[in-house]
Automatic annotation (TrEMBL), chain A:
SUPFAM superfamilies: MetI-like (SSF161098). This is ABC transporter permease. It is found in: Cell membrane. The chain crosses the membrane at residues 12-31, 95-119, 131-155, 175-193, 233-255, 275-301. Coiled coil: none annotated. Pfam families: BPD_transp_1, BPD_transp_1_N. Belongs to the binding-protein-dependent transport system permease family. PANTHER family: DIPEPTIDE TRANSPORT SYSTEM PERMEASE PROTEIN DPPB-RELATED, DIPEPTIDE-TRANSPORT INTEGRAL MEMBRANE PROTEIN ABC TRANSPORTER DPPB-RELATED. Residues 95-298 form the ABC transmembrane type-1 domain.
TrEMBL record, chain B:
It comes from the Bacteria. It comes from Sphaerisporangium corydalis. Residues 27-53 are annotated as: Disordered. PANTHER family: ABC TRANSPORTER SUBSTRATE-BINDING PROTEIN (PTHR30290:SF83), PERIPLASMIC BINDING COMPONENT OF ABC TRANSPORTER (PTHR30290). Keywords: Signal. It holds the Pfam family SBP_bac_5. This is ABC transporter substrate-binding protein.
């Protein structure tokens, strides 16, 4: 428990530093976001003034950041986009989409990835193992947008097994195909990690000892080998939650899912400081919480860590 | 593959200029006789693919996506029909004796979706709000030629406006609006087709923020429920509509896509009924797949190559012409845009009245030998040639590279560098005249008048730093011409002057490709509007 509290307290300076850093980076992007919004058309000086005042763009960085933070903590106001939509509202809308997508991808990664890895590890050198190795190499080698468009056109459009795009059919139907595409890279990684780990542990002394004691093979594998093999996999899966949420830009684009990744991409282009900071801070928090959970889970899987 | 990437990159940008043509409505409805067959008039719902609009307040958006929605929600005073002619819609007439004081008569009996009557005040209020500097609305500058505009938009830094209303707008009676311009402007009626000039009800002004989310218009469709950002906007037929184009279907659903490619896949899957921007890379396939339901639409958008005429090295007109003649426009359009764009030999787009197919003459025709001769005669070019473009879309870099190769090969310019500038910084760079070489210049048409192109890009204070009194005099004369017809030859003369000096080279004209599902009929897309009111559902 103390461990958990300690870890959470560590998150505070991380939070302040990241928000400031991100704000400063958006601030330092070249160009004038307000002029860019206007495109090729002329903008009267009075309009520029009004917009810059509204978004505090004339103030120095530290004042802008201070105003933003004051808004967040005193009024619970996360700021607004250049089109006047409150960031909080935007986050709630988009958050749901990304969470559902990431969850689908994550479950897919976890179940199929570990499953394939265990099968391959136990049947090392056999056909199943070779197939998994070849398949995962392929998935890792092919860029995600190729996988995405191919899956969309073959499985969605031609075969009609899944909806082609959008969120109309809700969870899980709308999220199955994009989830699999998004999770495919991680799946390949998880499968390989699990396989290696299983192979190594099968050769470990304690497994030989257990076998010598006459334990059933199913018990040796299920209770001892797998449990130990999963430590590196859990680490990866934990960190990957964050990756899945932040890194879904391409998948969200292909399948037209209005999620967080797309929003960050757009907002960086438009130099919308408050949005970028709001979204990334949230992502940082998720990374922090996820790695905390991973650390706590270690303890469950490996008593040595818990006691140390 | 590269064009595929391009489409995705472009689609996520709010500022993307995948244009629909920024103007007005359509020809008046073709009569109520086509509703006959299986359905009664106006049953059924269809869906339209869209990119997330920025705003839905008419005065505060110039995004083509917003305009698609606004054209269904609002009736503007006039519209441009499919042939480019101005037709009255909410207005009875728009007249002037001196091209400076305009009298607008508004049709009676028209209502907003909330039941409020559409009067001269509805227009005056909307225009005053748009012209008021501190509101910071996108279309502010459209009102700059109305008397009193400077009082609402003081130039000096930190100065406060001294008025809230344009003194040039006079509501004579509920159906008459008088507009006093700062100078004669024969093209004024055409500009009124732009959705930026749409009326707003009194109810809007109690809470403009809410209005932007839930606009109340006077058009054949009304908003149905909330604008679900990044997902959908639903419209339903406005039963109280008394105007000339009642909706033929019960409802429209705008489905919002972040990627055109995805929207196109959904069109093929039958998940969306109308897509106005089929990606150029898919044009050939779409034509085969959709047959008659593939609709290429002319667009007013043009690409140019501008010169920093303020820079000594580019002050020789022959040098600029030589560069123009060394560019193989057709070759580039075929390679980069799948042949969908049209090489241009004119400064205005083909759909603009007064367009001449060959206004430019041989100066815009690819001829490597003549180009080289002219280039040498002009004394060539010393130092590095920097080419400027933004990173908003990968296709810009592709065609700039093609241009560079042709300049190298045809003119022997060895030292060419690319200056790829972040999109947010690009226009600021040009505005500050920091460029020292040719740059990509794009124009999205506001209204189909040569004036919109010529005066905006070649007129006073232009980006190139080009000054020509003959040109500005001709434009002024055309602006005060007695009729639209009389103004055209004058604009053409001005165009000739600009072409003779060639401070900016015309390259190509964009084209949109729409496609629709077999679920809908009577699709009458034209360059000015998708005309959603005419569509019936089978």
């Amino acid at each position: 428990m103390r461990y958990a509290v300690h870890r959470l307290l560590q998150a505070v300076p991380v939070f302040v530093a990241t928000t400031f850093l991100i704000y400063a980076m958006v601030f330092s992007l070249p160009g004038d976001p307000i002029l860019a919004l206007a495109g090729d058309k002329p903008v009267p000086e009075a309009v520029l003034q009004a917009l810059r005042d509204h978004y505090h763009l004339n103030d120095p960085l530290i004042v802008q950041y201070g105003l933003y933070m004051a808004g967040v903590f005193l009024r619970g106001d996360l700021g607004e986009t250049f089109t006047g939509q409150p960031v909080s509202e935007l986050l709630t809308d988009r958050w749901a989409v990304t969470a559902q997508l990431a969850a689908t991808a994550w479950i897919f990664e976890l179940v199929v990835g570990i499953g394939l890895g265990v099968v391959a590890g136990l049947r090392r050198g056999k056909l199943a193992d070779t197939a998994v190795l070849a398949g995962t190499t392929f998935v890792i080698a092919v860029p995600v947008f190729v996988v995405g468009y191919t899956a969309q056109i073959v499985l969605g459009l031609n075969l009609g097994l899944f909806p082609t795009a959008g969120t109309d059919d809700g969870w899980p139907t709308s999220y199955l195909l994009p989830g699999m595409v998004l999770g495919s890279f991680g799946l390949a990684y998880v499968a390989r990690l699990t396989r290696t780990s299983v192979v190594e542990n099968l050769r470990a002394d304690y497994v030989r000892t257990a076998a010598a004691k006459g334990l059933r093979r199913s018990r040796i594998i299920g209770r001892h080998t797998l449990r130990n093999s999963l430590i590196p996999v859990v680490t990866y899966l934990g960190v990957d939650i964050g990756n899945l949420m932040a890194g879904a830009v391409v998948t969200e684009g292909i399948f037209n899912l209005p999620g967080i990744g797309q929003q960050v991409f757009q907002s960086i282009q438009l130099q919308e400081g408050p949005v970028v900071v709001g979204v990334t801070t949230l992502l940082v928090m998720i990374f922090i919480v996820a790695s905390l959970l991973v650390d706590l889970l270690y303890g469950v899987l490996d008593p040595r860590i818990r006691r140390g | 593959m590269t064009v595929l990437k391009k489409a995705r990159g472009a689609a996520v940008l709010l500022t993307a200029v995948l244009t629909l043509g920024a103007c007005g409505g359509s020809s008046e409805n073709t009569g109520g006789d086509q509703a006959g067959k299986s359905t009664g008039p106006g049953a059924g719902t269809f869906s339209v693919a869209l990119t997330e609009p920025d705003h839905l307040t008419p005065g505060n958006t110039s995004s083509s996506y917003s305009i698609t929605v606004l054209q269904a929600l609002f009736d503007t005073l006039v519209v441009i029909d499919a042939k480019g002619q101005t037709q009255m819609r909410a207005a009875e007439s728009v007249t002037s004796d001196d091209q400076q004081t305009w009298t607008i008569k508004i049709k009676s009996g028209q209502k907003f979706h909330n039941g409020e009557a559409v009067t001269a005040d509805s227009f005056a209020d909307a225009w005053n709000a748009a012209a008021y500097g501190p509101n910071a609305w996108t279309n502010n500058y459209y009102f700059a030629n109305i008397e009193g505009y400077d009082k609402l938009n003081p130039e000096a830094e930190g100065a406060k406006p001294t008025a809230e209303k344009l003194s040039g707008l006079k509501v004579v009676d509920p159906s008459t609006l008088e507009v006093h311009l700062t100078a004669p402007f024969s093209q004024f009626p055409i500009t009124l087709a732009y959705t930026g000039f749409a009326p707003m009800p009194k109810a809007a002004f109690t809470d403009l923020k809410t209005y932007d989310q839930k606009p109340i218009g006077n058009g054949p469709f009304a908003l149905d429920g909330d604008w679900a950002h990044n997902q959908q906007i639903k419209l339903k037929r406005f039963e109280g509509y008394a105007g000339p184009r009642p909706a033929k279907s019960a409802a429209v659903q705008f489905k919002i896509y972040a990627s055109r490619d995805t929207a196109y896949t959904d069109l093929r899957a039958g998940k969306v009924d109308l897509l106005q921007t089929i990606p150029p890379a898919s044009a050939t396939e779409a034509k085969k797949l959709l047959g008659d339901r593939f609709v290429p639409t002319a667009s007013g958008t043009m690409d140019y190559l501008g010169f920093p005429v303020f820079d000594k090295r580019f002050q020789n007109a022959d040098l600029r012409k030589a560069i123009s003649m060394s560019i193989d426009r057709q070759g580039i359009v075929d390679a980069v845009y799948n042949g969908t764009f049209k090489p241009m030999s004119s400064l205005v787009a083909p759909l603009v009245p007064g367009y001449r197919e060959d206004a430019c003459g041989e100066t815009c025709v690819y001829d490597a030998a003549k180009a080289k001769a002219l280039f040498d005669k002009a004394g060539g070019l010393t130092g590095t040639l920097n080419l400027y473009f933004s990173n908003a879309d990968p296709s810009y870099e592709q065609w700039m590279q093609a241009v560079a190769n042709q300049l190298k090969e045809n003119l022997g310019i060895a030292d060419i560098q690319f200056r790829k500038i972040p999109a947010a910084d690009y226009l600021a760079t040009l505005r500050a005249k920091k460029e020292d070489g040719p740059y990509r210049n794009n124009w999205v048409m506001d209204y189909p008048s040569p004036q919109n192109y010529l005066e905006s890009m070649w007129g006073a204070g232009n980006r190139m730093g080009w000054e020509n009194k003959q040109f500005t005099d001709l434009i002024a004369k055309a602006n005060s011409a007695a009729t639209m017809e009389a103004s055209i030859p004058l604009y053409q003369q001005a165009e000739d002057v600009a072409l003779a000096e060639m401070p900016m080279i015309p390259l190509w004209n964009w084209q949109d490709q729409a496609g629709y599902s077999n679920k809908i009929t009577n699709v009458t897309i034209d360059p000015y509007s998708p005309n959603l009111d005419t569509i019936t559902v089978k």
